Amino acid sequence: MSKVNFGIQDVYVAKITENNGAITYGAPFAVKGAVSLSVNPEGGDATPFYADNIVYYMAPATNNGYTGDLVLAVTPDEFLTQLLGQDKDSDGVVYETSDDTIARFALLFQAQGDSNNRRFCFYDCTATRPSRENNTKEDTIEPGTETIAIKMNPRTTDRMVKCYVDATTENQSVYNAWFNAVHEKGASI
């Protein structure tokens, strides 16, 4: 078990296809140039119900997934075309229209840690178009970044939100195959 987290690397996404209530994932592809990922829980606190001058019942807290920002050096064309619905023509020009259809996807990544490099999977995500930062060149060059807001939702089929794995001798095969396909609960490698 990791005691601290630092760094982000090996960011992958896998496009979701849903047919007749069944979700399948495409092959994960790498999203190079990850600078940071911030993730914040969404949902309400537990709600108390009072009776007889005490907390008579505590309604459970809701889990609506997470929201976050993925900061990249530059958003790869594959992310723009596969997940944000933009079009790349044979001349290599990428086009964005107001009719682009955004796709759902799984987000996989690795956070470095003190002893284990924990690997994560958020099962059902959507993303916004990237915001961009460009600055004038001064005495030193400071690269701009692009920020993509991501909503990590509970999966529609089973309400699964995320999972993670640490590198241990018991699960080395799962850990090693993490970025080959989206890992499902109960699956064996």
List keywords for this structure.
189 residues; mainly beta
Plain-language structure description:
It is a single chain. It contains two helices and 14 strands. The protein has 189 residues and is mainly beta. The radius of gyration is 20 Å and the shape is globular. It starts with a strand and ends in a 13-residue tail after the last helix. The model has no long low-confidence stretch (mean pLDDT 91).
Write a concise synopsis of the structure shown.
By secondary structure, the chain is mainly beta.
Q: Topology of this structure?
A:
Layout: E1 5-19, E2 22-25, E3 29-30, E4 34-41, E5 47-51, E6 54-59, E7 66-72, H1 77-82, E8 87-88, E9 94-95, E10 105-113, E11 118-127, E12 131-132, E13 146-153, E14 162-165, H2 172-176
Antiparallel strand pairs: 1-2, 1-3, 1-10, 4-7, 5-6, 7-13, 8-9, 10-11, 11-13, 11-14, 12-13
- How many DSSP-defined strands? 14
Q: What separation lies between the terminal Cα atoms?
A: 21 Å
Overall geometry: globular
**Broad structural category:** mainly beta
- Given the structure, what is the number of helices? 2
Order of helices and strands: EEEEEEEHEEEEEEEH
Biggest sheet architecture: 10 strands, antiparallel
The stretches of 5 or more residues where confidence is low (pLDDT under 50) are none
Q: State the helical fraction.
A: under 10%
